[in-house]
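Reviewers of the previous submission asked for a worked example of the structure-prediction workflow described in the proposal, so we include one complete record here. The input consisted solely of the amino acid sequence. No template or homolog information was supplied to the procedure at any stage.
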Amino acid sequence: MATYWDPFQEMDRLFGSLALNTRNAPAMPMDLFREGDHYVLAVDLPGIDPGSVDVSCEDRTLTIRAERTPRSAEGQWLLRERPSGTVARQLTLGRGLALDRISASYADGVLTLTIPVSEEAKPRRIEVSHAAGSPTAIEAGGS
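From that input alone, the workflow returned the following structure tokens.
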């Protein structure tokens, strides 16, 4: 009985198992939703020192930067999956937002940014005026 042997199959299996062990999720998972006349951005930052969180906005680019200090262990590490060091994420914001009125709060490992919609971008109703006393074509052409 002949067996098929692929020399690259073992390498694919090995690299596949290594890829599963790496973190495929972003370092800062976030949710973004609109609530009325503002957007809410919730960013998960567990274990982050609140004093290390830095949020800045320059030329429509919102940058969130934070640092997780590594935990020192007296003994030997058996498993270490929690990343440490500086994490950063940038978002390009669209037009129609009041960038000068962004507010931020950090509680229970979640950074919450509230980004208001600018007054110019809010939908508004436009009244249509009509002249009540102007003659119509039939009235003007009558006897």
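The mean pLDDT is 81. We consider this example representative of the routine output the project will generate in years two and three.
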